[in-house]
Amino acid sequence: MKKSPLLCYGKSCDHPPMESTPALKIENLNFHYPGDKSSVLENVNVSIAPGEKVALVGPNGAGKSTLMKLILGLEQIQSGNISVYGHEAHACRHRVAMVPQKSSVDWMFPVTVRQVITMGRFVHLGWFKNPGKKDRDAVDQAMETMEITDIAHKQVGELSGGQQQRVMLARTLAHDADLLLLDEPLNHVDIATQELMFHTIEKICSLGKSVLVSTHDLGILTVHFSRVLFLDKTFIADGTAENVLTPQNIAKAYGFEFHKNRENTQC
Predict the structure, then answer these.
(1) I need a surface site. Which of 111, 143, 237, 256 has the fewest CB within 10 A?
(2) pTM
(3) 88: three-class secondary structure by DSSP
(4) Given phi > 0 = left and psi -120 to 50 = alpha, else beta, which region is 80?
(5) Enclosing H/E stretch for 183
(6) DSSP bridge partners of 239
(7) How far is C-alpha 214 from the geometric centre of its chain's CA atoms?
(8) β-strands 96-99, 234-239 pairing
(9) Going by C-beta distance under 8 Å and a sequence separation of 6 or more, which residues neighbour residue 180?
(10) Cβ contact 191:204 at 8 Å
């Protein structure tokens, strides 16, 4: 798979939120990649309210990353509808930000920590306008929140895995989006970074912003999430971790009996 450089997306028009609308609403969504007859997503329906912190789980190939790309507008919707705060998803890129999987990023791209985080402001600036004081302040605040101010001038390729994830979340914070998508943010990061991430997510949601986190770590769900979406091409369960992670759902999605793997929370 070709890795993407550390770039953001062009400026979108401002779309104020519609009253009493979900942060994210997906209706009858279907998707398959060109040349592949099998569907990646089938009849996906879900609604996420402002301020919700939601975990997205499912086996490899369940469509989690594809779903996030569709929400962000990186893949074209083929069938169904996705709306963000009452507007079509592709028209609201300034309101949605994503932390991609670490393995999908080209960490050898020659940029510093500060430059990467400043890219989070490009969606507001456009490509040819220099950052102003508001943008610099947003970058400074994001670095302070993620405790990486002291490495601002380091090249991102020199950082540890945990530091790189802190940088990507800081870029998302600088974006100041209302809907945050985190695709496997806990992979290969230290415990201190995990705890900082969850603390930051809690703070984000307390401000009325919504967060959708894709993860394979089922052990964290009861501790950090009040709602879990179980995806296997379509949503096979939606609710609390206790209600979603039943032996029947686990067996259906992963192809094994949950009680045989009770001690292994990494799937």
Answers:
(1) 256
(2) 0.84
(3) strand
(4) left
(5) strand 179-183
(6) 228
(7) 7
(8) unpaired
(9) 96, 97, 98, 99, 172, 201, 204, 209, 210, 211, 212
(10) no
